[in-house]
Every structure is written in structure tokens, then in C-alpha cells.
Amino acid sequence: MSRIAYVNGFYRPQSQAAVNIEDRGYQFGDGIYEVVHLHAGRFVDTDLHLGRLERSLREISLPMPMPRAALELVLAEVVRRNRLTEGLVYMQVTRGVAHRDHAFPKKPVPVSLVVTAKRIPPYPRNVDNWTGAAITAPDLRWARRDIKSINLLPNVLARQAAREQGAIEAILYDEATGEVTEGAATSFWIVDEHGTIRVRQLDHVILPGCTRAALIAELAEEGLAFETRAFTLDEMRRAREAFLTSATSFVKPIVRIDGAPVGDGTVGPVVRRLFDVFARHVLGPAHNAAA
């Protein structure tokens, strides 16, 4: 069955879906995107993702394409038409179609909304089979990384560099300060040499990750101490453990960075526990009752 996409009010087979070549998303990257994870037919952390979408749109003076409740109905319908129970739903909002000019259109035009969905494997069961390696790379992105913009060329190049070196992620850092910012498409955490869970504080140089926020809430619920404080490359290299969070990484242990082992090169006890904690969050009440 062909995948079904929603494009500006219409549901179309994805192979037939199209946008105008003068859409400002295509011409300038003038738009915002968001991704929501679907597990067992249930959206995970919808409020966090749609709240971030609304914030990013405000930051670039773009209106929501429709009220949040209506958008949630569109997301659900795309899922239904694609017969998904496990997957990702992607939404993209752009400033719409106008003659090419860098400034906003003089006369407002309707914003464009595209929603697609795809299947992904279910939540991993074994954390030891969920590990990965990373590389480090200078952070070359624009100054407002807190906005989930569709301008992703530096992220693409960083991820490609990681892939070419047999890694799954590029850990970005500020060349001037040596401070780690985040992954090319993930939030990056360490368990430092003193055993403290750390992730960079929110500011304009990192994206406010929704999985990051959900895990922080779970840490508080579990009574686990953590710090939102920047760390340097040197601190990262002395860390006992490291991991990524994102809508597709969940809690993903990183066991090698730039070819060197993190800690002893295996999944550490803290990340192992956090993997289980977040599994309960994603899999929901039925899983927790069964456990």
C-alpha cells in the first residue's frame, strides 16, 4: 500500500503528493518541523512536541496552520490511513507560496502544512543491543538552534561524517569554548567522572529536546539527581557513561567516541537504569502493569 501524506487540506498517496516550487520552505528553508513518536497506536509526548512546534513558529513569526485540536485530528487521520501502530509522524509548516524574495511576502499568503508518517521498529528490548559510537565535530549551525528550523544542512553534513566513520552520531562542540552543545539530531548527556548525570542547560545554542524534557521529568519522579550544566570535550572524554536522547533514539548508550571507549566501553549502570525508566514512559500503563 502506498504511504499517504497530508498536503494543505488533502490526503494523497505520497508518490503523488507535491508542493509548489515557489514554496518558501523549498526556496529558503523558511519553515519549522516537528516529529512525534507513535507506539502501540498511541502518540508519545504529544503535548511537548506540539508545544515546541508552537514556540518555534512564534519565534519566526509564523502562525499555526490550524488550531492544535484540528492538527491532532490530522495527525491521527494520517496514522489511520497509513495503518500504523509503530512509527514516526512528521509535520512541516512553511511560510507558503510566494514570488521569490528574501523578505516575508508583502501580502500574507496561506502557510503550508505537510504531514507524513513511516513505520519504525518497536521500542528496543535489550539495551546492550542498542549501543552506538559517535564522533565529535565543530558546531557550524546558525545561532538560533533552539528553533526547530528545516534549515538542516550543517546537521546533514555532520551526520554524514559520522556515518563515513562508522558512527551513528556527531557530537557537536563550540570551537571557541570547547563546550559540547548536542548531537547533530539528538540531545547528548554524560555521567561525569564524579557520577553526576549532566546535560547542557537550555539556551539559544541547543534545541529544547522533547525526549530530554520527558526524561528529566522521569528523573525527578525517580528521585535521581542530575545537573543541567555545560561540559567540555575534556570532561566528556573523562565521563564514565554517555548517551543520546531523541524521539527515535529514546535513551541510547554511546560506548565509543572518536574511536576511544566511554568508561569501559560497555553500557554502564546509570544508563542501563535510565533505559528502563524511559521504557516505562514510552510503553505506557499496560506495560508497567504487566511488569
From TrEMBL:
Catalytic activity, reaction form: L-leucine + 2-oxoglutarate = 4-methyl-2-oxopentanoate + L-glutamate; L-isoleucine + 2-oxoglutarate = (S)-3-methyl-2-oxopentanoate + L-glutamate; L-valine + 2-oxoglutarate = 3-methyl-2-oxobutanoate + L-glutamate
Entry's family note: Belongs to the class-IV pyridoxal-phosphate-dependent aminotransferase family.
Pathways per UniProt: Amino-acid biosynthesis; L-leucine biosynthesis; L-leucine from 3-methyl-2-oxobutanoate: step 4/4; Amino-acid biosynthesis; L-isoleucine biosynthesis; L-isoleucine from 2-oxobutanoate: step 4/4; Amino-acid biosynthesis; L-valine biosynthesis; L-valine from pyruvate: step 4/4
NCBIfam families assigned to the protein according to its UniProt record, in alphabetical order: PRK06680.1
Species in which this protein is naturally found: Humitalea rosea
Name of this protein: Probable branched-chain-amino-acid aminotransferase
Keywords (A to Z) from UniProt: Amino-acid biosynthesis, Branched-chain amino acid biosynthesis, Pyridoxal phosphate
Biological-process GO terms, alphabetical: amino acid biosynthetic process; branched-chain amino acid biosynthetic process
Role this protein plays: Acts on leucine, isoleucine and valine.
Signal peptide annotation: none
Domain of life the protein comes from: Bacteria
A Pfam family matched in the record: Aminotran_4
Entry GO terms, CC: cytosol
GO molecular function: branched-chain-amino-acid transaminase activity
Cofactor section: pyridoxal 5'-phosphate
Record EC number: 2.6.1.42
UniProt keyword annotation of Isomerase present: no
